[in-house]
Design a protein that fits this description.
Layout (H helix, E strand, L loop, with lengths): L1 E5 L6 E12 L8 E12 L4 E5 L11 E11 L12 E3 L4 E3 L2
Antiparallel strand pairs: 1-4, 2-3, 2-5, 5-6, 5-7
C-alpha cells in the first residue's frame, strides 16, 4: 500500500512518524482491522510530500471480500501538529481481499 504524506504546515516536519494501515467492510476506521504499520523518519519542508510504502499483512481471521482501506498517521511529539482532522484517510473504493 502506498501512502502519500504531505506537510501542509508552515514549518518543516522532522522526526518519527508512525503509519498504520487498516481494512474495513464499511467506510469507517471505527471498526477497521489492522493490516500493517511502518515507522519512518521524515524531514519534510512545508507544502512538500513524500510517498511511503507499507506491506499489508491480512490477519488469519479476515474473510475474503471487498474492503475499504484507511491509513492513520501518528507523529511523534517532536513533530508539532495542531490539526487532528488530517491524520486519517479512507479509500473511496473497495479493494478485494483474497487469501
Amino acid at each position: 500500500m502506498s501512502i502519500l504524506v504531505t506537510n501542509s504546515g508552515n514549518t518543516a516536519a522532522r522526526g518519527v512518524l508512525n503509519i498504520y494501515a487498516f481494512a474495513s467492510t464499511v467506510q469507517s476506521d471505527a471498526i477497521a482491522t489492522p493490516l500493517g504499520n511502518r515507522i519512518v523518519h521524515i524531514s519534510l519542508a512545508p507544502n512538500k510530500s513524500r510517498r511511503f510504502t507499507i506491506n499489508l499483512r491480512p490477519g488469519n481471521g479476515d474473510a475474503v471480500g471487498n474492503y475499504y482501506l484507511s491509513a492513520q498517521l501518528l507523529p511523534a511529539p517532536a513533530i508539532p501538529d495542531n490539526d487532528v482532522s488530517d491524520k486519517i484517510a479512507n479509500s473511496l473504493l473497495t479493494v478485494p481481499l483474497s487469501v
